[in-house]
C-alpha cells in the first residue's frame, strides 16, 4: 500500500512543484531508496519537462519516476499504482474554483485518495480568505476520508521566508490566525527559508556542486520532519 501525499494550496507560486520534486528525490535516494512515483497532474507539466533534461545528465542518482495523469487516468490506475509504489506524490492541477461545489473540483477529487495534504505558505502569496476557502474544502474531504476509516492529515509549512519584509510579517499573522481558527499544524515553527537556491525543482539542481551546503542542510532538516509526519500514522 502506497502512502499518497499531495502538496497543494489555493494560490500559485508557493513552491508546490519544487517541493514535490525534492521530496520525491529524497525518498528515492539513499538512505531511503523507496519506490516513488511523482504524479504531475498540472496541465503545464512543469516537472515532466524539467525531468526529461535531468535524467540524461546525472549519474549515480536514482531517478524517481514521474508521469502525467489527469484525474480520470489517476482514478483508473490508482489500484495498480498503490501496489507498485511505496509513495505516490501528487502535484495537483489548478486552483480551487470557489464557484463550484467541493466534490466537482479536480483538486478535491485527488484529495479523496490522499493520506496527507501539505500546504505551502510563502510570503507575498496569500490572503487569509483564500487559504480558508481551501482549508474548508480540505476539511470536508478529511471527513469523507474518516467516514471510510482513513484520514487526510493536513499540515502547513513555510517556504522562502526571510523575516525581513512586510510580506514576511503578514505571513506570520496569517499563520497565527490559521492556528487559532483551525488548530492547523505547522512544520518547523521556527520560521526560516528551507532552501536558498533557485530552480530547485530538478534532480540536478539538488545534486550539482554549486547548490549550497546551507540549502542542503535546510532541506534535510525540513525533510526529516516531513518524513516523521508521513511515517507516524
Ligand atoms: N525554497 C526555495 N528556495 C528558492 N526558490 C524556490 C524555493 N521554492 C520555490 N522556489 C522558486 O519559486 C518559484 C515558484 O516555485 P514553484 O514553481 O515550485 O511553485 P508552484 O506552487 O508549483 O507554482 P505554480 O502554482 O505556478 O505551479 C520557482 O521559480 C522556484 O524555483
Ligand atoms: Mg507548479
Topology of helices and strands:
Blueprint: E1 3-7, H1 16-28, E2 36-40, H2 46-57, E3 65-68, H3 71-84, E4 87-91, H4 106-111, E5 116-121, H5 128-147, E6 153-158, H6 166-182, E7 185-186, H7 203-207, H8 213-232
The structure holds adenosine-5'-triphosphate and magnesium ion.
Adenosine-5'-triphosphate (ATP) is lined by residues 12-18, 42, 159-160, 194-201.
Task: Give a summary of the structure in a few sentences.
The protein has 8 helices and 7 strands, in the order βαβαβαβαβαβαβαα. The protein has 233 residues and is α/β, with parallel strands linked by helices.
- The CATH H-level superfamily is P-loop containing nucleotide triphosphate hydrolases
Record field, number of beta strands: 7
CATH topology name, in short, is Rossmann fold
Instruction: Provide the structure class.
Output: alpha/beta
**N-to-C span:** 14 Å
Strand order of the largest sheet: 3-2-4-1-5-6-7
Helix content: 40-55%
Tell me the domain tally.
1
Main β sheet profile:
7 strands, parallel
Mean pLDDT: 85
The low-confidence runs, each spanning 5 or more residues with pLDDT under 50, are none
User: Given this structure, which CATH class is correct?
Assistant: Alpha Beta
Any idea what the shape is?
globular
Order of helices and strands: EHEHEHEHEHEHEHH
Tell me the radius of gyration: 17 Å
Strand content: 5-15%
Spell out which ligands are present.
adenosine-5'-triphosphate, magnesium ion
CATH 2nd-level architecture: 3-Layer(aba) Sandwich
Amino acid at each position: 500500500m502506497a502512502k499518497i501525499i499531495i502538496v497543494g494550496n489555493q494560490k500559485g507560486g508557493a513552491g508546490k512543484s519544487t517541493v514535490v520534486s525534492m521530496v520525491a528525490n529524497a525518498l528515492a535516494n539513499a538512505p531511503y531508496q523507496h519506490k516513488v512515483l511523482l504524479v504531475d497532474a498540472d496541465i503545464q507539466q512543469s516537472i515532466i519537462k524539467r525531468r526529461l533534461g535531468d535524467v540524461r545528465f546525472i549519474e549515480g542518482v536514482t531517478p524517481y519516476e514521474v508521469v502525467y495523469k489527469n484525474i480520470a487516468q489517476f482514478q483508473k490506475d490508482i489500484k495498480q499504482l498503490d501496489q507498485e509504489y511505496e509513495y505516490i506524490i501528487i502535484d495537483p492541477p489548478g486552483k480551487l474554483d470557489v464557484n463550484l461545489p467541493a466534490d466537482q473540483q479536480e483538486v478535491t477529487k485527488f484529495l479523496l485518495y490522499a493520506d496527507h495534504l501539505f500546504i505551502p505558505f510563502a510570503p507575498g502569496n496569500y490572503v487569509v480568505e483564500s487559504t480558508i476557502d481551501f482549508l474548508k474544502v480540505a476539511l470536508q474531504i478529511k471527513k469523507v476520508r474518516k467516514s471510510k476509516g482513513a484520514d487526510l492529515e493536513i499540515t502547513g509549512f513555510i517556504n522562502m521566508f526571510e523575516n525581513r519584509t512586510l510580506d514576511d510579517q503578514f505571513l506570520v499573522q496569517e499563520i497565527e490566525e490559521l492556528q487559532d481558527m483551525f488548530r492547523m499544524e505547522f512544520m518547523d515553527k521556527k520560521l526560516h527559508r528551507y532552501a536558498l537556491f533557485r530552480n530547485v525543482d530538478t534532480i540536478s539542481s539538488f545534486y550539482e556542486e554549486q547548490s549550497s551546503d546551507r540549502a542542503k542542510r535546510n532541506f534535510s532538516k525540513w525533510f526529516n520532519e516531513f518524513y516523521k509526519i508521513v511515517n507516524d500514522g
